[in-house]
C-alpha cells in the first residue's frame, strides 16, 4: 500500500497530478479541490494516497488532506459509486461541505455534480448518513446534530456560525441544511448573515 507521495510536482492536468519521488513519477488521479491547493509545477508537494487495484488496471489516487482521502474512501463504499464519480463529487464539494450535505440529507446538493442523478444522490445519502453520524472520520457523536458540529469543527467558521445561531434561538435542524449550501471558506459573520436572510425568507 502506498500511503503517501512526497516530491516535486512535474505535471498538473485536469484530474491528474504527477509527483516525482526518487526519480519515479507517480500519476495520481485527484480532485479539482486538491489541484487548487498543491501549487504549481516544479514545487514540492505531499499527497495522501490510496492504490486501487482491479483485474484490468491499477490506479493511484492522491489527496491534499486526509479528510478528503477518507471522504473518497467512504464514497467508494456506496453501491454503484466508482472512483470517477467520487472524484467528481469531491471536486464539487470540499470535505466539510460533503459532511454537512450528507448529515443534512441534502441529496439535491449532490445532484449538482455532473453525472450524479437523483437515485444515485439519494443512495449516497442513505448509505453514508449513519456512517458519518456514527464512527466515520472520528465523528463519534450519538446524534446527527452532534455529528454535524463535529464535522464542522475543522472549519471554525461553520462551527462558530452554528454556535452563534444557536444562541439566537435557532436549532441545528433549521440551520444545518442552509449552511450546507454555502461556501465554507466564507467568514462566520457572512455565514450567519446569509443564514439569517434565508431563515427570514422562509418565515415571511
Describe the SSE topology.
Layout: E1 4-13, E2 16-21, E3 24-29, H1 32-37, E4 44-53, E5 58-63, H2 66-76, H3 83-92, H4 95-103, H5 107-110, H6 118-133, H7 144-152, H8 156-167, H9 172-179, H10 188-203
Parallel strand pairs: 3-5
Antiparallel strand pairs: 1-2, 1-4, 2-3, 4-5
Helix pairs in contact: 2-3, 4-6, 4-7, 6-7, 8-9, 8-10, 9-10
Explain this structure to me?
With 204 residues, the protein is of the alpha+beta class. The protein folds into 2 domains: 4-64, Beta Barrel (OB fold (Dihydrolipoamide Acetyltransferase, E2P)); 67-203, 5' to 3' exonuclease, C-terminal subdomain (DNA polymerase, domain 1, Orthogonal Bundle), CATH 1.10.150. Helix content is 50%, strand content 19%. It contains 10 helices and 5 strands; from the N terminus they run βββαββααααααααα. The chain has helices at residues 32-37, 66-76, 83-92, 95-103, 107-110, 118-133, 144-152, 156-167, 172-179, 188-203, and strands at residues 4-13, 16-21, 24-29, 44-53, 58-63. A 5-stranded mixed barrel has the order 1-2-3-5-4. A hairpin with a 4-residue loop joins strand 4 (44-53) and strand 5 (58-63). Helix 2 (66-76) crosses helix 3 (83-92) and helix 4 packs across helix 6. The radius of gyration is 18 Å and the shape is globular. The N and C termini lie far apart (55 Å).
Amino acid at each position: 500500500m502506498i500511503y503517501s507521495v512526497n516530491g516535486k510536482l512535474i505535471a498538473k492536468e485536469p484530474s491528474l497530478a504527477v509527483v516525482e519521488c526518487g526519480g519515479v513519477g507517480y500519476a495520481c488521479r485527484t480532485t479539482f479541490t486538491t489541484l487548487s491547493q498543491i501549487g504549481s509545477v516544479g514545487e514540492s508537494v505531499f499527497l495522501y494516497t490510496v492504490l486501487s487495484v482491479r483485474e484490468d488496471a491499477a490506479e493511484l489516487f492522491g489527496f491534499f488532506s486526509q479528510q478528503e482521502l477518507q471522504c473518497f474512501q467512504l464514497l467508494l463504499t456506496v453501491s454503484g459509486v466508482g472512483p470517477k464519480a467520487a472524484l467528481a463529487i469531491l471536486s464539487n464539494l470540499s470535505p466539510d461541505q460533503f459532511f454537512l450535505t450528507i448529515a443534512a440529507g441534502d441529496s439535491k446538493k449532490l445532484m449538482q455534480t455532473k453525472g450524479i442523478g437523483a437515485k444515485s444522490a439519494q443512495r449516497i445519502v442513505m448509505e453514508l448518513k449513519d456512517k458519518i453520524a456514527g464512527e466515520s472520520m472520528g465523528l463519534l457523536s450519538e446524534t446527527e446534530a452532534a455529528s454535524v458540529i463535529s464535522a464542522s469543527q475543522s472549519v471554525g467558521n461553520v462551527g462558530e456560525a452554528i454556535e452563534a445561531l444557536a444562541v439566537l434561538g435557532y436549532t441545528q435542524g433549521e440551520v444545518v441544511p442552509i449552511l450546507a449550501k454555502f461556501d465554507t471558506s466564507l467568514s462566520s459573520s457572512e455565514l450567519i448573515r446569509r443564514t439569517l436572510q434565508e431563515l427570514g425568507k422562509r418565515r415571511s
